[in-house]
Amino acid sequence: MIQNIRKVALLGMGTVGGGVYKIIEKQKNELIHKIGAELEISKVLVRNKGKYANLIAPEKLTDQWSDIIEDDSIEIVVEVMGGIEPAATYIKEALQKGKHVVTANKDLIAVQGHELLELAKTNHCDLLFEAAVAGGIPIIRPLNQCLAGNEITEVMGIINGTTNFILTKMSEEGMDFAEALQLATDLGYAEADPTADIEGHDAGRKLAILASLAFNSPVTFQNVYTEGISKISAKDIRYAHELGCEIKLLGIAKNTEDGIEVKVHPTMIPQSHPLAAVNDSYNAVFIHGDAVGDAMFYGRGAGELPTGSAVVGDILDVARNIQFHCTGRIGSSCYKNIPIKDIKETKSSYYVRMKLEDRAGTLAALAGVFGSNNVSISMLLQKTKDEKTADVVIVTYDVLEKQFMDSIIVISNMSMVKEISSIIRVYH
Amino acid sequence: MIQNIRKVALLGMGTVGGGVYKIIEKQKNELIHKIGAELEISKVLVRNKGKYANLIAPEKLTDQWSDIIEDDSIEIVVEVMGGIEPAATYIKEALQKGKHVVTANKDLIAVQGHELLELAKTNHCDLLFEAAVAGGIPIIRPLNQCLAGNEITEVMGIINGTTNFILTKMSEEGMDFAEALQLATDLGYAEADPTADIEGHDAGRKLAILASLAFNSPVTFQNVYTEGISKISAKDIRYAHELGCEIKLLGIAKNTEDGIEVKVHPTMIPQSHPLAAVNDSYNAVFIHGDAVGDAMFYGRGAGELPTGSAVVGDILDVARNIQFHCTGRIGSSCYKNIPIKDIKETKSSYYVRMKLEDRAGTLAALAGVFGSNNVSISMLLQKTKDEKTADVVIVTYDVLEKQFMDSIIVISNMSMVKEISSIIRVYH
């Protein structure tokens, strides 16, 4: 019956590569029906062939890229090594040879995605990367195809599982940041060097990709403002709850009249918002389009099998496209060039917690500084008080970041202000 | 620059047709970039041409199907009339003429979908119907493509907005069913004859389509067990809250070892489950796959623009496929023929509320009947008591529907049982 075999090379057998391998082996017979051809992993590029001798037939294992790039029977290259090099070089060489590429590499796509998509287009090749954003959650096809009739004005999400796990533990069990991070490390959610997660860089890369797709205009990681969660305290989370909010690390991208805003930062979000209920290591992407209204996509943003699921979905699509001679059908969707706004030019509402000297006139002086910078106060709460200082929480109305920060500089130099303890943006 | 025009005929200008028309008019210039061709609505089939004279150019309006089927320049037929006939005939004639079809018609697809997809395949045509399930929520491409590497074992959801609105009002504001239904009618959420929504038929049609896609095996509306929400009382919702649950009208499809289960019924679901937080007229579809784990898709399941968004997404995909000469690329995904289980052969946990005579031995007799039918009791709560009767709530462990119903027949005939007030299935 089946006369076709579509040959795939897998670059890397780490967590994601292992997941892809397992899924394809398990689903082998099903896939024949789904793509009308047999899918064969004919080469696997690894550093140490001995390590996989028990799992993979020796003739399939190689430590030489030349064994893959020079093998004309291989039509699909699946890059799951991660990192910029040699991944970037391998992908370029594959595309130049007319091989289709599936990658899970967000570091690379967030920086060189636009260039690589152009190269794919020139060579009539598919370059798919569903796994690079929000792991197993289907998001790229929904954006590029299902919602293509929409003008999307906002895409935001919880797109880093490690930090969401940490914030969930802080919120639900009252842990402080260090304790929750330790637990995340012990459970294998956080890496030995957790910087990329904790500081929002990982989320920033995914947001750059999402914003490009949603707004049809190039956005790279360098354009994204990032701020991490290491300064969030148990006290801020308690106060957030009192305000009816949760604190989440959100990636927020908006297409406004005067440009694109792209930022990752801890955010107070009302408990009634669907994203507020996304807990543990789950991810979710929330979209607002002019026709569809609000939509949300929820699931596992990382892990061997969820990420493998997204990679395999892409491989099957490429295989189907090859069968139907229509590779390159949906390539780069960036046909605009919208300017990107500096964080200082964006607007937000802010939560500020500070320690003030407890004497007459302090609040009036504070309100005066905010007022002269056009910062309107929506709420002022005087919290715990000891002999001489008071813990004060202020929530502002929406204001330009520049004006808010100008007022904070003045306030932090006032003699009655003992400490600006924390500043967190609030999403309405 | 643009040498191509893809011509579309719209059958129907009701709610959905109007939405499709508006979106395409608004996005005209964007769509050129997205599909590489201009999209033109060249004919609109309506019953009363006079009604649309102000909106649509007279040469585009027609009340004759022959004007469309005989026009060879029309490549895409968009059926948004609803109902079985003449929609079914028009779709068949269009496919036989090699025209591609996009439809939002769940009534038709839930019954004749498999046959129509075969016809599309024979004619190398696309037949897309994203809008037929969960309105604007992208779900068909995610299932058919993004998650194609998964064995999906469960798909369930809140797929009727009217009943979800009613249950939300009952849960949040303590309304009873009649009051909430009246509000839904006043707000235009419920139709003049709300039977199809209230009795779960609308949800059943969508579930049949979802199950077919998820399990790659034909499931039609006739296979779906349906039970509506008209018997749900404010008291049951109060008790559900006490048990940490919400009551939702769920469509539940499972692929089990001995066959497919497909059922729509009011369900108690733990408040911690993501579906429990889906409120008002929002819809959500929850999926479990062996690789991706749990995933959920949330958004507007109905309405002019959300449903229009899904239809337009499909039209753009067909247009792209025409540009790349690869229509018919993803057709029927039903390559299996899995038996479908009768509701009596399915398992569930049950909540039963009943009025009992308040005398010694009543509970023991009850427990005896359950026990002899292999029904294990997980919880028994004695609620309000008046002089002679007690309101008793029992929650069972998972049990075969057949065995549970056998025990209920015996119990309802016992002299000390004054009334079986309600029976609601419980989802763990």
UniProtKB/TrEMBL annotation, chains A, B:
The active site is at residue 206. SUPFAM superfamilies: ACT-like, Glyceraldehyde-3-phosphate dehydrogenase-like, C-terminal domain, NAD(P)-binding Rossmann-fold domains. GO terms for biological process: methionine biosynthetic process; threonine biosynthetic process. Its cofactor is a metal cation. L-homoserine binds at residue 191. Transmembrane segments: none annotated. Its EC number is 1.1.1.3. NADPH binds at residue 106. It is an enzyme of class 1 (oxidoreductase). Pathway: Amino-acid biosynthesis; L-methionine biosynthesis via de novo pathway; L-homoserine from L-aspartate: step 3/3; Amino-acid biosynthesis; L-threonine biosynthesis; L-threonine from L-aspartate: step 3/5. Residues 351-425 form the ACT domain. CDD domains: ACT_HSDH-Hom. Keywords: Amino-acid biosynthesis, Metal-binding, Methionine biosynthesis, NAD, NADP, Oxidoreductase, Sodium, Threonine biosynthesis. NADP(+) binds at residues 11-18. The keyword Transmembrane does not apply. Pfam families: ACT (PF01842), Homoserine_dh (PF00742), NAD_binding_3 (PF03447). GO terms for molecular function: homoserine dehydrogenase activity; metal ion binding; NADP binding. It catalyses: L-homoserine + NADP(+) = L-aspartate 4-semialdehyde + NADPH + H(+). Belongs to the homoserine dehydrogenase family. This is Homoserine dehydrogenase. It comes from Anaerotignum propionicum DSM 1682.
